[in-house]
Amino acid sequence: MIGANRQNKFVGFGLLIVCFNTQQFIHRAYAMTHILISFLGKSPKKDGQYRQANYCFADGSQETARFFSFALNKHIQPERLVMLGTSGSMWDVLCDDNHDQWAALSEAVEDDSVTQAQLDDFAIPAGEALKVECQLKRIPYGDDITQQVEILQIMAAAIQSGDTVSLDLTHGLRHLPMLGLLSAMYLQTARDVSIKNIYYGALDRTKDDLTPVMQLNGLLNIAAWLNALDGFNKTGNLAPFSTLLQQDGMAQETAQCLEEAAFFENTLNIPNARAPLKKFTAATKNGLTGIGALFEDSLKDRIAWHKEDNLYLRQRSNACFYLQQGDYLRAAALGYEAYITWLVQQDKRVPRLDPQNYEHRQQIKESLKKNNDYKLLNNLRNALAHGTRSDMAEVQRALSSKDNLHAELSRLFNSLLPKELK
């Protein structure tokens, strides 16, 4: 009996592991679901039928259909098709006129009165006809921001984190494809969704009875660049550009110079940040290609400081940049270091002091104990770095508001950091 009980425990434990692993597998499988999201518009009928088109894909294959998503569904074979349309979209294209409920649906389409309940009834027949699981969702027309947000919420509710999404922007009202593109950006960022492809069936470019299918993934890449540029303008972080430039075809060794420079800038090591930027500039002297060409001027303007031969000017340039961006901790820290560098460089003793030598910099600091602006900048830097309340009235006043701090640091920079070398 003891052996049997022990054996039963092992069997039970084994079943528990199997169940757990099965749940893990199901979760992973579901998380990797490939979903096609499509907007359903409204097209005029001819002789009671919607117009057919022969869609030609990039690989040369062709699919004929009355609605582009039918052709796209057959071509990419997703595990689920989520169709979004308004109360007046051509939902009756989903079934033929022999279907028992087709007449009622067709009438509702004409009256702009299709209900979600009707769509729920048609989801299974549509899925059987298209050989894919279907979700049919009625969305508002998107006339205002409230309805536009609702459309995004309906889309988001149809997917799970980790899903892969293909997006069809062909049909729908003219403003819905724009909302669809924004939704792709939203799903990528907020829901951790991978956007596999964005498609557009260009009916207006039909030639010789072939309608080309365009892939618009580049639009998302441009959006990624805009996002990186926005973050870069706020924080000065160059690292995200490295990945984007590699996607554009740049050699990994060259693109990663920006990651290396970003690391040293983030650790306030301006001398070491200069070398990878010089290497990057030399490797891209003929200009950036692809999407990067759109952002080349902004990127190279920001890293132009590395061309300064003088350490003080490089530190001052970065301190002023971070002050402008509202990154007051880095601004104060670099402004403080720039001032020490300036004084070391101005020292006339022989042999000359080295601005990168710690002991030489300490010698200069010893002579500044009576410099009130230096002491205030140093105390502001310390208060910002440690996040503690200073017992100095001047520091407390500066840290009492953003405007006060910005004004005080600006005054100190103007007082302590000359724009040009003597």
Automatic annotation (TrEMBL):
This is CRISPR-associated protein, TM1812 family. It comes from Crenothrix polyspora. CDD domains: Csx1_III-U. Coiled coil: none annotated. InterPro entries: CRISPR-assoc_prot_DxTHG_CS, CRISPR-assoc_prot_TM1812.
